[in-house]
Amino acid sequence: MKFHVARLSFVSSAQRTLQKPEFEGNPIELTEKLLEENPKHAPKKRGFIGLYFGDFIFDTGRKLLAARLGKFKEVKITEYDERKKVFHDRKDASFPYVYLLWDKDEQAILVERDTSVFPNYEVLFRSIENHLNNLLKTYELRVSVTPLTERMDFWRSLREYAQGRGYLYEANFKLYMPNFFGNTQQNLKEILNAVKEDYNATEFSNQISNTDGRLNIQENDQKIDAALEWIMKGGGKWSIKGKKEEGKRKVTINSTKNAKTVETSVEIENYTPEGVAKIISSLKPVYSIKRGLVGNDVEKGDK
Fold first, then answer.
1. Nearest to 105 by CA among 222, 44, 26
2. What is the pLDDT of residues 98-128, one digit of tens each?
């Protein structure tokens, strides 16, 4: 089975509500509760897709492990009337689905890859994020649902425009405020925390550009590398803008279109807590960033 992995990063919302409901627990536990209580996403804006969550599976401690994630699809069914010897077409509802695995300890979700159900996973993750943010709004919280990416995808994309007859106009690095990465990349974390404190910011964007398309980024640049390491863990997004030769139109490539895929030979059998836990355990070494580190600014009371 193949899965896309995304990290959930929580920050306090800049928007305040008149009466914020109380919840005794951390943001990931609150999100589990709200998702189970609100399993349907019916977006009011374009750019999102409707979603249905169901068949939730919990462990013995009521910790969420998995759900089925589907969408509405209208299908045409052809029936045959033997008495009249005619065919009849009618429309019916179908709800194709994929498996969504929930790793509370790593603040990560794993979504089964099946392009026959969800052909555009960038839109899917954006829709999941929209749904969760609608649920968390009254609790004065925001969440970013960010797919994990590979560092080499950035450099490979960069070379397409920075070499030969290509033009590289800009590179943007959007970093979310730290609430989970513990003591990893302490210098960058301190910078982002300072920005958050000084400006009440929920994210920080750093863009470098050259209007002539002659942007020069060296692959051994430590500042770029630090940003990419943060992003590949699910702490942000990158994008680059360029064109391959004179006369071509400018193209923007972003990290969410290059979401990391992880694969396991373990199959979900009978959809049991034990089977789901086995799959999560087999994949965790690929995406784990915790490894004994502790640190969650929101969890510690920054709500």
1. 26
2. 999 999 999 999 999 999 999 999 999 999 9
Tokens found for residue 36: 């189970």
List the one residue out of 91, 103, 41 whose CA is nearest residue 279.
103
Beta bridge partners, 35, equal: none
Instruction: Tokens for 156, please give them.
Output: 């490979």
Predicted TM-score (pTM) of the model is 0.84
Query: Which tokens is 34 given?
Result: 């709200």
Q: How far is residue 159's CA from residue 254's CA, in Å, rounded to a whole number?
A: 14
Contact between 234 and 152 (Cβ < 8 Å): no
Cα 140–Cα 144–Cα 148 angle in degrees, nearest 5: 160
Task: Identify the H or E element spanning 188.
Answer: helix 186-199
Token digits of residue 107? 């603040």
State mean pLDDT over 251-259. Answer: 85
Residues 249-282: b if buried by 16+ CB within 10 A, e if exposed: eeeebbbbebbbebebeeebeeeeeebbebbbee
Instruction: Provide mean pLDDT across the span 123-152.
Output: 93
Euclidean distance between CA atoms 271 and 284, whole angstroms: 19
Query: To 10 degrees, the CA torsion angle through 94, 99, 102, 103?
Result: -170
236 near 149, Cβ under 8 Å?
no
Q: What is the H or E stretch that residue 287 is in?
A: helix 273-287
Residue 235 near residue 182 (C-beta atoms within 8 A): no
Residue extents of the structural domains in the chain: 1-147+260-303, 149-258
Q: Are 192 and 177 in contact (CB under 8 A)?
A: yes
